[in-house]
Write a structure and sequence with these properties.
The chain has 406 residues and is an alpha/beta fold. It has helices at residues 12-23, 48-55, 59-63, 102-115, 163-167, 195-198, 229-233, 239-249, 301-320, 327-350, 353-358, 365-375, 385-388, 390-402, and strands at residues 2-8, 28-31, 68-70, 72-77, 80-85, 97-99, 119-121, 125-131, 136-142, 145-156, 171-173, 180-187, 201-206, 209-215, 220-227, 267-269, 274-276, 280-281, 284-286. The radius of gyration is 21 Å and the shape is globular. The structure holds flavin-adenine dinucleotide. Flavin-adenine dinucleotide binds at residues 8-14, 31-34, 40-44, 125-126, 157-161, 163, 181, 269, 272, 288-289, 296, 299-303, 305.
Length: 406
């Protein structure tokens, strides 16, 4: 079998890439090792996602699902609160997005691109690729055995599978300190259906330890801890016993999550951050989580998955349609602009600098709007000095607050 572009993985990065390829008049095949719907973590989107979904003709299908709308994000430390409202931001972008159970969200996107004519082969796994000059021979395994697909170009959207990084030895340890996560979804019987209770909340629990609360429209809520490995070692027993104890130990979660039913046994992910040596090569590009994953604190994972899948789909189609594409300039540089901006904010969160800004009581509204746009995922808007000069802007602001100048 032959195709123009073979995509590994039917997560958001893969399906958005497929849509852009189809729109450009080329054929795409997605090889997906799981059967959908399948669970994956990453449930809070950023407004930037909406622009990409719209351009990929996928927004309307998601709109029909009645997912929980997300208008902003609330950060809490003890009695201090900082609310970012996406309607009050620097960039002229979307003022809302969604909080989504990913099994449902990813299936909607996959079903939609199937309707566009993309061949999605579930329960098929890419096991090897023979990279050649003008074609790539992709080896696929399923319950009947192995077969090959000849493709002019391969997009690796395999997320945590990291197919091409593993085959070409591209994985790099992350520059960030090791952190782990434990999470589940609960039947959130103590939540009232108000904007306040339905809002995503990030609790800065203790140094280096934070909790997410992401309510869904189906009555369930995703709740998870992120912390250094030593934090999790303090808790003994089954994962459920450990997570129940962690939630009980925190003043801000103890009551709401006491005795609630868990939708599944909590999942523990040790050391989730990873980096990569190269984002593209001859005949291939890596997108989404298969590239670099920083940290979940600002919910940027799906935004990067969509942005990179969208960009890679457009560029790959252009190239196969005869245009010259400078991948380093048009893809790597674009993606890294966003990654580096978020890296500054992730580092500043773990250095406690961002909390100095978030919980300062008299922060200038213009500055807050600029930071809000970063948190909305508009990290390609260079008119925003908190994007353009991200590191200096954050450091200078923290110094001014500490000196009492603000
Ligand atoms: P995925 O959605 O993982 O899809 C990859 C697909 O590839 C899978 O379906 C898989 O089955 C398939 N695959 C893998 N290997 C193969 C193979 N060999 N052959 C065929 N198919 C294959 N992001 C957010 O935006 N918001 C959040 O709130 C958030 N919270 C997070 C919390 C934690 C603790 C962690 C670790 C991450 C979080 N993320 C979050 C990040 C998010 O999980 C990812 O960024 C996102 O799922 C990436 O999407 P993707 O399309 O790249 O990959």
């Amino acid at each position: 079998m032959k195709t123009d572009i073979l995509i590994i993985g039917a997560g958001p990065a893969g399906t958005v890439a497929a849509s852009m390829i189809k729109k450009a008049g080329l054929d795409a095949v997605i090889i997906e090792k799981e059967k959908f719907p399948r669970y994956v973590i990453g449930e809070s989107l950023l407004p930037r996602c909406m622009d990409v979904l719209e351009d990929a003709d996928l927004l309307k299908a998601v709109e029909k699902q009645n997912f929980q709308k997300k208008y902003g994000a609330l950060f809490v430390r003890g009695k201090d609160e900082c609310l970012f409202n996406f309607s009050d931001q620097h960039t002229d972008g979307w003022s809302w997005t969604w909080q989504v159970p990913r099994d449902e969200f990813d299936k909607v996107l996959a079903d939609e691109v199937e309707k566009m004519g993309v061949d999605i082969r579930y329960e098929n796994e890419v096991v090897d690729i023979d990279f050649q000059d003008e074609k790539q021979i992709v080896k696929v395994k399923n319950s009947d055995g192995e077969y090959e697909i000849e493709s002019r170009f391969v997009i690796d959207a395999s997320g945590y599978g990291r197919v091409i990084p593993r085959l070409l030895d591209l994985d790099l340890p992350s520059s960030l300190n090791p952190r782990s996560s434990m999470f589940t979804q609960v039947v959130d019987v103590n939540r009232s259906n108000t904007e306040v209770d339905n809002r995503i909340t990030i609790i800065d629990a203790e140094p280096g330890v934070w909790i997410w609360i992401i309510p869904f429209s189906n009555g369930k809520t995703s709740v998870g801890f992120v912390a250094p490995p030593e934090f999790f070692e303090k808790y003994q027993g089954s994962n459920e016993e450990r997570l129940r104890q962690m939630l009980a130990d925190q003043e801000l979660t103890a009551d709401r999550f006491k005795d609630v039913e868990y939708a599944f046994d909590p999942i523990f992910i040790p050391g989730y951050s990873i980096a990569i040596k190269a984002l593209h090569g001859k005949g291939w590009v890596v997108v989404g989580n298969a590239t670099e994953f920083l940290d979940p604190v600002f919910s940027s994972g799906v935004t990067f998955a969509l942005e990179s899948g969208w960009k890679a789909g457009i560029l790959a189609a252009r190239m196969l349609n005869g245009e010259k594409v400078d991948w380093s300039e048009a893809y790597d540089k674009h993606l890294l602009q966003g990654v580096e901006t978020f890296r500054t904010y992730v580092n500043a969160w773990y250095d406690d600098k961002l909390q100095t800004i978030f919980f300062a009581h008299n922060i200038n509204p213009k500055i807050k709007r600029q930071i809000c746009s970063v948190l909305a995922g508009y990290v390609w808007d260079k008119s925003n000095s908190y994007v353009r000069n991200h590191r200096n802007a954050v450091d200078t602001l923290v110094s001014l607050i500490k000196e009492g100048a603000i």
